[in-house]
Amino acid sequence: MRHLTEVPPRRGLIIFLNGTSSSGKSSIATELLRMLDEPYFHMPVDAFHAMRSHAPVPPQELDTVLHRTWQGYHRAVAGMAAAGNNVVMDHILSAEWRLRDCLSLFDPRDVVLVGVHCPPDELERRERERGNRPPGLAARQLRQVHAHGVYDVECDTGVADPAECARLIRDFLPSRPTPTAFQRLRDSG
Ligand SMILES: Nc1ncnc2c1ncn2[C@@H]1O[C@H](COP(=O)(O)OP(=O)(O)OP(=O)(O)O)[C@@H](O)[C@H]1O
């Protein structure tokens, strides 16, 4: 490897998978990374929580610690894209501020906002089968996660498997229309 003093500047693409817990985001991300020709980084929000040490957090400080983790995650994704890296973001827009924060940080031309949908009964079934998510978590998130109502591309994991969803997203990329969902959301905000 040569140590470069500079590389050509460019902006990375952010494929933003948004859906409830158990909707299938990570499974789609895994397929996408396999399918896409260029290098991409899968950055799931879960990975950022997993990086935190297990030092005890006083209950009254827990919300602040979590909030800082989410804010840091958004800025880490923005930083990777600003350095020219392509990112598959795997996140849950279960609070309104999260979308507003991302809208303020990402270049809206470079975001492909993907709605990852799944019917409530199938979400419940997956939660039961996985056993590592609190029952009813996805149902509680469902309404807020898709409340903004605007996407570049959407998939339903109740009917399509992860590879089919990933192909749909991959095939959307070469001729994606403008304004992007992020541009529309920013303009309407
Ligand atoms: N399209 C699909 N069809 C059927 N089962 C699926 C599909 N996608 C994912 N699953 C299953 O649903 C469960 C959750 O999938 P996955 O981890 O990809 O979801 P997630 O949205 O990333 O969840 P979380 O946010 O809770 O981490 C897994 O057991 C997975 O095998």
TrEMBL record:
Highest taxon, organism lineage: Bacteria
Pfam families given for it? CPT
Which residues are listed for ATP binding in this entry? 19-26
Spell out the Gene3D superfamilies in the cross-references: P-loop containing nucleotide triphosphate hydrolases (3.40.50.300)
Q: Where are the transmembrane segments?
A: none
Q: Where is the active site?
A: 46
The entry lists its GO molecular-function terms as: ATP binding; transferase activity
Q: What name does UniProt use for this protein?
A: AAA family ATPase
Organism per entry: Streptomyces chromofuscus
